[in-house]
Every structure is written in structure tokens, then in C-alpha cells.
Amino acid sequence: MAKLAILEFPDERLRTKAKAVQSVDDEVRKLVDDMLETMYDAQGIGLAATQVDVHRRVVVMDVSDDNSQPLVLINPSYTPIGDEKEPLSEGCLSIPEHYAEVPRYLKVELKALDRNGEPYTLEADGLLAHCIQHEYDHLEGVLFVDYLSSLKRDRIRKKMEKRHKQMQGA
Ligand code: NI
């Protein structure tokens, strides 16, 4: 397994719409394993392939407290169950150190393929439902800052650009 580099906002590559996976083969499984390692190393609860500059519809997640429940979502789609939304504070490995409340559907039904290419369905609520919607957005080139006012988004962009300058200078 190998740790992958995570793209950071406002990198334009994060705006790429990912393409569907045609067959879940060893190459895809290696990507999944590398993404899980990268996510756990960065102490995240979700990572989309878009964030590691691979523009295919692959997501990994683990919302457990002890990294014991890895979840693999290949070609995911979801439908809201009910129309109730709740705001929850969100972060993103591509926008480190910034958090904001984003309203998401309370409950969703997820459909995806697992790491063996087997289809599954999952009813999710709470943090998991939130995470599914956040990661799905990544595959569409959407970031949580897109839900904020342009004023707030610009403020975060400036801070991120400053961070990247400092990293280059170090
Ligand atoms: Ni994210």
C-alpha cells in the first residue's frame, strides 16, 4: 500500500467530474487500499478519489471511533429518505483546519459496489449520511465551501493560499 498526496482547495483539479468505474479489478482494489491508508494516516473519515487526483467514482469512508469499519463505495448514488435536512459541522482533508455547518439530508439510501464489485444498498443517517453526501459531492467536483457565502469562501481561499505559500517557502 502507498500513501497518496491529497489535493487542497483551491486546486482546480478538485473541480473535475469523476468517471464511472467500468470494472472493479485489481487496479481499482489497489486504489481503494491506498486511499484507505491515506485517509487513516490523515485521520479523516472519508476520502474521494478526486482528492488524490484520480478521477474515477471511488470513495472510502470509516466513521467508527477506532478505524474498524472501512466502507468502500464504487459508483455510488444515493436518494434522500424524507426531505428533512440538518446542519452539521463539516471538515475536509482538502480544506484542512477549516470547518463550517452544512445542511444535508438526515437520512439517505446509498447504492454502490463494494471492493469485489458486488452491489449493495445501505440506509444511513447521522454522521454517515452526512459523509456520504459530502464524498459524493467530491466526485461531482463540489466542495463544502460551495455551500457557504462567497465572502466566507473567499476568506477560506485566501487562508489556504497563504498556507500553500508558507509550505513552499519552508
Ligand atoms: Ni472532503
TrEMBL record:
Cofactor(s), names only, from the UniProt record: Fe(2+)
Record key words, sorted: Hydrolase, Iron, Metal-binding, Protein biosynthesis
Catalytic reaction equation(s): N-terminal N-formyl-L-methionyl-[peptide] + H2O = N-terminal L-methionyl-[peptide] + formate
Positions annotated as active site in the UniProt record: 135
Cofactor note: Binds 1 Fe(2+) ion.
UniProt key word Metal-binding: yes
GO molecular function: metal ion binding; peptide deformylase activity
Alphabetical GO biological process terms: translation
Protein name in the entry: Peptide deformylase
Gene designation per UniProt: def
